[in-house]
């Protein structure tokens, strides 16, 4: 199975901004990050919401919990990409003490795959039609991500292939969907911070897509 490049890093940010070294950054807005839910277990999503507000957590889940299959969705607006894309990185933050449910030491979410999709389904809004697209590969494995005594780091995933496809198709939006692998057991989920979380706790936690232009 193809694996995505996964590393840990710190975050930074604002909506659309161009930085030195031909780097472009774009972030989600509250309407563009959320969750799709298959609430009956029949393999068809029947609920779409722009965020999961759990107290002040402002998180979305990816995993099979509470007899539901939940999928985390993040949509980013893209600039016109005239020059070739050298590299693109999706940066997300997990929530809670251990980034997962149940939130206890040594626990983890399930093996999780990443999909991407383009316009017209990707349009800055979370809708049932977002449950489509192309599988990029494994984004997270079912193992703990927190180092004892340290805060949760950011999760960074290489999505260069997806952004190159978006540039080729001249899509002004790109969506990413995280969901439990088909053979993942039920009972756990990853907890992802959203733009709503960032609005309360610091904009560095906003889901971020960084594009390096050649």
From TrEMBL:
Tell me the keywords, alphabetical order. Answer: Signal
Signal peptide coordinates? 1-21
Q: What is this protein called?
A: Carbohydrate binding protein with CBM9 domain
Cite the source lineage: Bacteria, Pseudomonadati, Lentisphaerota, Lentisphaeria, Victivallales
């Amino acid at each position: 199975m193809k694996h995505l490049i996964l590393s840990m890093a710190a975050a930074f940010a604002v909506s659309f901004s161009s930085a030195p070294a031909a780097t472009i950054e774009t972030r989600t807005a509250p309407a563009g990050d959320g969750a799709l839910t298959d609430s009956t277990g029949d393999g068809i999503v029947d609920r779409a919401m722009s965020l999961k507000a759990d107290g002040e957590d402002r998180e979305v889940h990816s995993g099979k919990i509470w007899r539901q299959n939940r999928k985390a969705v993040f949509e980013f607006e893209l600039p016109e990409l005239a020059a070739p894309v050298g590299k693109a990185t999706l940066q997300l933050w997990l929530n809670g003490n251990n980034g997962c449910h149940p939130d206890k030491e040594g626990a983890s979410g399930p093996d999780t795959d990443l999909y991407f999709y383009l316009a017209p389904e990707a349009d800055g809004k979370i809708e049932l039609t977002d449950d489509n697209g192309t599988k990029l590969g494994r984004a997270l494995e079912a193992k703990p991500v927190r180092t004892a005594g340290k805060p949760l780091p950011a999760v960074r995933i290489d999505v260069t292939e997806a952004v190159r496809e978006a540039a080729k198709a001249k899509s002004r939006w790109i969506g990413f969907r995280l969901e439990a692998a088909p053979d993942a057991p039920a009972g756990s989920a990853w907890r992802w911070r959203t733009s709503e979380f960032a609005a309360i706790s610091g904009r560095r936690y906003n889901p971020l897509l960084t594009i390096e232009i050649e």
